[in-house]
Amino acid sequence: MTMSAMPSPLASVGAVGLVVWAVAMWAAVGVLAYANRGPVRPWVYSLSVGVIGLGIIGQLGHVQEHFAQVAYWLAHPNEKAWMTPLGTGLANGLGQVAPDKPSLGMEILHMTGNFIFLAGLVGVVLITRRALSTKARKWGKMGVLMQGIHGMEHLVLTLSVALGASQAIGLSTWFGLLDPGPGLWTYRIWWHFIANVVGSVIFAVAVYHLWRERREVRLGYLSAGSQWDAAAPTPEPELTAAR
Q: Which pTM does this prediction carry?
């Protein structure tokens, strides 16, 4: 699908906001990963919860775009991939970075959405750093692996268009071997739909277990705070009055 219309000011602001959202989440992930290397810091728990929450919100918005594309395909299987008005506006806004590459905005949009999703999954792994045996951590790691591969696919698709390829090159386009047409559109629509649905289910299961195991996960941070309190130097007792 190509984008060619000039974006509205609102769409441009939304596009910038989406990129800032993704950058902020990965900045937080970097801070959390670094903080987890040293002594346990209780604030890591709260920040991880925030990253996970933003990841959930982002993926809810992202996956609905894929459901809409599949619904449109069911009614129009021989037409180009369709995007919702919101998705189209954001793609047009992002496409301003290279107006001569009409499909680049759409590729950046989906890549950004996937990296927001991936950051949320990484948040699950980070928050369970002190609860290694939890099911939440196992499902989170599974999600990071799968979504990491999916994220790399979108990165390759975006870079191929940005570098001047006539069409996006990646697993979902048979590395550019499929000619534009119903075959390519159908394959790509369903490839990304299935990848996002499976990834979303894994994320949902990880969050479900995280909720059930929240006491165990939180205990690691609370006990760490108690250890700090216990390790703090005891103030010298005041001298008693001379006898």
A: 0.88
